[in-house]
What we know:
By secondary structure, this protein is of the alpha/beta class. It contains nine helices and 14 strands. An eight-stranded mixed beta sheet has the order 5-8-2-1-11-13-14-12, with helices on both faces. A two-stranded antiparallel ribbon has the order 3-4. Strands 6-7 form a two-stranded antiparallel sheet.
Amino acid sequence: MQELLVVKIGGNIIDDEKQLNSFLSDFAAITTPKILVHGGGKLATQLSEQLGIKTNMVNGRRITDMETLRVVTMTYAGWINKSIVAKLQSLQCNAIGLSGADAQLIPAVKRPVIDIDYGFVGDISEDTVNTSFASMLLNNNITPVIAPISYSNNGELLNVNADTVASVIAIALSKTFKTTLLFGFEKAGVLKDVNDNNSVIHEINTQNAEALKADGSISAGMLPKIDNAFNALIKGVNQVYIAHASFIKPIAENKKGYGTRITC
């Protein structure tokens, strides 16, 4: 099977021009098929504050009312997505900017209200990913750059967790590609002490994950990353890492000792 690298980057990399440009240069240089999924939560939060829109987060996930939906759509699927695509083009990486709503790439279902009303937030499944379209792009040396906005059958735009988007598309394509999934962010990996970048936990598995949640090593925005990482492995993804975005090259080359590797 041909190798595929699916990478997700978040707002702290996107908002740091030096780190983003360095990452995109390394990403563009990778010759195997690749997909980039991006968030942008920090910029969306800043814009919300400027517009007087309150930001509400629960367990690392954004509550999305209609005003917030407009902000995240403009931010994620607009400015951030097209800025990344433009930079990749300048690096001779032929990229196409997409959201989950384009070409029925990743349909979503509006999250039902159980204990929490998340608003216009979507849940997605690997079973509904348009893998034929994604594969067509990859097989023609076009790199998808995906924003975490999707749509429902009712024609609603929905905000989707970017970690989940990366996990779901990696799972869906693992049936035809040998897939590595990297959650790239600004830390060296999952840290035992969030203030010590040298306290990397080099492996997290199903045996130690619960203890790390209990002692606070895994909390807030790291929770959906870990959950999505385990789900991806269980459903066919070959390798999953949580690491600094700058580690993309050695991870793509299957070198050991970089960041946190998730195993079952």
